[in-house]
């Protein structure tokens, strides 16, 4: 893991340059060579050259760490599953197809779960922090996607399904609940680490924050595995999803009602639950 972190940090500037070149649509590729893109980043982006070259490092580190960790976890479990399904003995060798099956399954699962991280990373490294609307941080990126894309896209699809009619309170509640479950699941590991940073460990007789974020995350991974980062997620979702539904119901109904009260004066009524 340490080697992976070190290599990710070392080559991160090249990742930014690669992304900028991949997104370039100009007819002359020589105008945006590696050297020119690198020089442009140093010259025009900031607030410092180091921060410009390492923009988007947080999701890159998180994605690589989580991605490879989940891959190796599920690769081993995939091998065990293949062995059990085929009735292999402990000493029986796997075929190439067996290894491919286990690795493909592990790769697919880890890719699905870490995809939100890579979306935020790509959006950060492909834009300068000076551009209006650019994500200033990884957490902001997750919040922005949830608020402006996940929730809004669900609403759009529901509206299309209903023939572009006004959404009912039930539709709004469903959209809010689904988007909150998605956002809450993706960001929940950070809440576990944060809670442990804020607590006092009687066994160690120290505040856990003195151990550091990385130490706490690594200890959780080593001692509890990937599921350790999702302890308590069920009661958390049971707590936050209803409150989110209420919040968005009030917001949507208020946004619908205010223009009609002060501007239009229409008597049109919103569909009830």
UniProtKB/TrEMBL annotation:
Keywords: Membrane, Mitochondrion, Mitochondrion inner membrane, Repeat, Transmembrane, Transmembrane helix, Transport
Keyword Transferase applies: no
PROSITE patterns registered for this protein in UniProt: SOLCAR
Membrane topology: Multi-pass membrane protein
Solcar repeat feature ranges: 1-81, 167-257
Pfam families referenced in this protein's UniProt entry, alphabetically: Mito_carr
Localization annotation: Mitochondrion inner membrane
Domain of life: Eukaryota
InterPro entries according to UniProt: MCP (IPR002067), MCP_dom_sf (IPR023395), MCP_transmembrane (IPR018108), SLC25A32-like (IPR044712)
Family: Belongs to the mitochondrial carrier (TC 2.A.29) family.
Protein name: Mitochondrial FAD carrier protein flx1
Organism this protein belongs to: Lithohypha guttulata
């Amino acid at each position: 893991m340490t080697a992976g972190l070190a290599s990710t940090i070392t080559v991160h500037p090249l990742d930014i340059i690669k992304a900028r070149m991949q997104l370039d649509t100009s007819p002359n590729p020589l105008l945006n060579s590696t050297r020119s893109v690198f020089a442009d980043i140093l010259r025009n982006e900031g607030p410092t050259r180091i921060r410009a070259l390492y923009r988007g490092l947080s999701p890159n580190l998180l994605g690589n760490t989580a991605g490879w960790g989940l891959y190796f976890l599920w690769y081993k479990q995939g091998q065990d599953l293949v062995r059990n399904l085929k009735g292999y003995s402990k000493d029986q060798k796997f075929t190439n197809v067996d290894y491919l099956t286990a690795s493909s399954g592990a790769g697919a699962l880890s890719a699905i779960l870490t995809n939100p991280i890579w979306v935020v990373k790509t959006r950060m490294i492909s834009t300068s922090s000076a551009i209006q609307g650019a994500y200033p941080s990884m957490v902001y990126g997750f919040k922005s996607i949830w608020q402006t894309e996940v929730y809004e896209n669900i609403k759009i699809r529901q509206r299309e399904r209903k023939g572009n009619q006004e959404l009912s309170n039930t539709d709004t509640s469903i959209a809010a609940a689904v988007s909150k479950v998605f956002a809450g699941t993706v960001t929940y590991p950070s809440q576990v680490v944060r809670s442990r940073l804020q607590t006092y460990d009687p066994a160690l007789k120290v505040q856990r924050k003195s151990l550091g974020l990385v130490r706490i995350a690594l200890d959780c991974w080593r001692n509890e595995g990937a599921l350790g980062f999702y302890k308590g997620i069920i009661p958390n979702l049971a707590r936050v999803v209803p409150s989110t539904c209420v919040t968005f119901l009030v917001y949507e109904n208020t946004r619908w009602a205010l223009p009609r009260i002060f501007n239009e004066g229409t008597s049109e009524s919103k569909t009830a639950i």
